[in-house]
Amino acid sequence: MNKPLILVVEDDAAIRNLITTTLETHDYRYHVAPNGESAILEASSYNPDVVLLDLGLPDVDGIEIIKKIRGWSLMPIIVISARSEDMDKIVALDAGADDYLTKPFSVEELLARLRVTLRRLNYVRGNQEVQNAVFVNGDLKIDYAAGCVYLGKEELHLTPIEYKLLCLLSRNVGKVLTHTFITKEIWGSAWDNDVASLRVFMATLRKKLEKNPSSPQYIQTHVGVGYRMLRV
């Protein structure tokens, strides 16, 4: 099982190094983003398990980052900020943050907050897996346990890659998945930038899935970004 991936969004190099050293010591994987622009790029490209977010970024206020991420993902966000007023915490939590840690903070408290967040995340994911053994969206039905896909009463015969693509999109229904994220999930790092191949496989999948591939019902293209499965 992969170790949890943490995105550290912090412009202060000293604090960023403290956090990343702590994460590395305790067997967490991590990516870093020193500003808001790179935070959005990293979050959308790598879909981290948890985001550790400083609010006082040099280019964009952290509250805006929370709102942007919440526009397409429910990934847990723990704010780490020097803003200690109750109203600052309320604004961040109302915007969609899951937790709020005030600077200065102890390493032990940071790790404890992470453990609680990850336990909650694993619990939710576990329940979803049990409840969603079969995915239904309009006429589309995916039986994950059996590895079968149906459109209405007809079983679709998909290649292994087409099936993996469809499952990835269905497990993230409503979310825009970037080209980088999809290719990494399906093929691994060696295929990170092979967008052309992804488009070919997506086109063959659509021919089998969509009644009118030129006006897709299930899979929407976000030009230059990626793909999203629509809820029908």
Key traits:
232 residues, alpha/beta, Arc Repressor Mutant, subunit A, 2 domains, four-stranded antiparallel β-sheet, DNA-binding
Instruction: Give a short account of the largest sheet.
Output: 5 strands, parallel
> What is the number of helical segments per DSSP (H or I, 4+ residues)?
8
Q: What is the number of beta strands?
A: 12
Order of helices and strands: EHEHEHEHEHEEEEHEHHEE
Q: Kindly provide the radius of gyration, computed on alpha-carbon positions and rounded to a whole number of angstroms.
A: 20 Å
Q: Look at the structure and name the CATH superfamily of the largest domain.
A: Response regulator
Q: Which percent band covers the strand fraction?
A: 15-25%
Structural class: alpha/beta
What is the share of helical residues?
40-55%
In order across it, which strands form the biggest sheet?
Answer: 2-1-3-4-5
- What's the end-to-end separation, in Å? 33 Å
List the domain count as a whole number.
2
pLDDT < 50 runs, ≥5 residues:
none
CATH class descriptor of the largest domain: Alpha Beta
CATH architecture annotation name of the largest domain: 3-Layer(aba) Sandwich
Textual characterization of the structure:
There is one protein chain. By secondary structure, the chain is an alpha/beta fold. The protein has 2 domains: 5-129, Response regulator (Rossmann fold), CATH 3.40.50; 133-229, Arc Repressor Mutant, subunit A (Orthogonal Bundle), CATH 1.10.10.10. It has helices at 13-25, 36-46, 62-70, 86-95, 107-131, 160-170, 179-187, 195-209; strands at residues 5-9, 29-33, 50-53, 77-81, 99-102, 134-137, 140-143, 148-151, 154-156, 176-178, 219-222, 226-229. The strands form 3 sheets. Strands 2-1-3-4-5 form a 5-stranded parallel sheet, with helices on both faces. α3 links the parallel β3 (50-53) and β4. It is elongated and about 60 Å long. The two termini are 33 Å apart.
